[in-house]
Amino acid sequence: MLPTETTDTIIKTLKSDGVLLHPTDTIWGLAASAHSEIGIDKIYEIKKRERNKPFLLLVDSLEMLKYYVPHIHPRIETLLLHHVQPLTIIYPDVQNLPKYAVAENGSSGIRIVQSTSCQEMIKELGHPIVSTSANLAGEPFPRSFEEISKEIIDQVDFIDRFSNLSLLSGEPSVMITYNEKGDINFLRT
Hints:
Blueprint: H1 4-15, E1 20-23, E2 28-33, H2 37-47, E3 56-59, H3 62-68, H4 74-82, E4 87-91, E5 108-112, H5 116-125, E6 129-133, H6 150-153, E7 158-159, E8 174-178, E9 184-188
Parallel strand pairs: 1-7, 3-5, 4-8
Antiparallel strand pairs: 1-2, 2-6, 3-6, 4-5, 8-9
């Protein structure tokens, strides 16, 4: 559990269009509120990333996921209940989010975070966060805080140094897509 003052600062940062540098359940990431076009734009600028490459979304629970993806294929829901590794799934038709928070075709990669501190932060915020690795576009993702570029660190609005790092694997999540039958295609293992 995060100290109350840290949680308050994180939520204030996200609600005021800020960018957070924080540990997730995979790697260190940059985050903004999914309802903040300014925050999302800042992440694109910090990473020097092309605007046509959307970021993934992090949610705190299956219940939150179902609000944004009301029609989850039963095979995918079963997978979510039993998959142990962090799993990002590209959902074809995401609802209830601003257009700037999802891909042009309405799809989005979404992961239910396993990190308790990330779950608490998202629950407190009340909606998903946009998330991406804390690296410049085209550079290797950081496996530890020490590998994050000073250029990134200097541009964020808050750094979460208090979250529990025990789930930080140092590897990105498994990423999949699926078709109408629920057949899975691995994009990243």
